[in-house]
Amino acid sequence: MLRTGGIVGALALAVPATPAAAPPPFEILRWTAPGAELAALSTQPAACLGSAAVEVQAGEALFNSPRLLGGQAAKAGLSCAGCHVNGRDNAHFLMAGVSDRAGTADVTHSFFGAARGNGRFDPVTIPDLARPGKVSRDPAGGALESFVRDLIVDEFAGREPTPAMLAALAAYVRAIAPCPDGDPPGRRALDDQLRLIDFALRGATGMARRADPVAARALLAAARHQLGLIAERYPAPPFGAERRELLAASRVLADMHDKAANSDGFIAALSAWRAAFEKDLVQRLRRREARSLYNPANLAFVAPQQDNR
Ligand code: HEC
């Protein structure tokens, strides 16, 4: 089942009559192995970043945005982070035509984009980007930048990223590190989305200042995707009002796309948006998080679904 990602798609489909009869379609379940739904929805590998630079934050926001990719991936709502959760790996990843078992993917297949297909179905284990791998992370050679560029454009049929977008993605990948105290299991929470929205907005402001409207727009799209993920966790009823406000907030960001070339007006509009978002809606979402589907206790209805497959 493929549909357009983002908040409009999420809102159109995620309106169950009763949770037991029609569970909300969580985007993540499109690439989650049967039986691992609850784990994928409520846990994630821990991430510890070696830097708090705005560039790294912009890179993390882009890394989590399906709009960075094109074709099948964008349609499914799959971002870099769908496979590399929190920049790490994804033991639960399973997608027909892409994986042969959970935790694997073939990124040289023509499923996502025709350019890079090698004609063979040869999935490999999704690597943890916190560990050294095949691709050199040395900034001097630029090997990481060109690897990521080819991944986006050739494998995932995405639009050519600007040099600043590539630099941000590479800076993020270089900053991913194992946690100092080992890797405590991470829980999924509203804060994941709020943090990425914050990173996307900071990044968009920075990109507008350096006159890169393409990157600024990509970061707006990244923020909107996170709003859609919040909406998945606050089903109506009882969260009808919050969902309407999330949708309205997403539309305001969408309307800013055209302003991205005028840096002053754009930055002012972004900060007005942020103030309005944080003033009331974020407070309410936070207060009611325990009643939302971020709370694993409220996700029990996902489990019976597994037995019927
Ligand atoms: C469909 C799952 C999937 C998606 C989406 C994905 N990757 Fe990967 N990634 C993989 C797999 C599998 C490999 C290992 C490929 C290999 O070893 O040939 C990999 C390898 C990498 C590596 C090299 C790691 C090393 O060995 O040094 C980097 C860096 C990377 N991915 C970054 C990204 C970025 C950035 C994006 C988004 C633009 C992305 N990936 C999207 C599955 C994915």
UniProtKB/TrEMBL annotation:
Endpoints of the signal sequence: 1-21
Coiled-coil spans in chain: none
Cytochrome c domain boundaries: 54-177
MF terms (GO), sorted A to Z: electron transfer activity; heme binding; metal ion binding
Alphabetized UniProt keyword annotations: Heme, Iron, Metal-binding, Signal
Keyword Signal (UniProt): yes
Origin: domain of life: Bacteria
Protein name: Cytochrome c domain-containing protein
Organism of this sequence: Sphingopyxis alaskensis (strain DSM 13593 / LMG 18877 / RB2256) (Sphingomonas alaskensis)
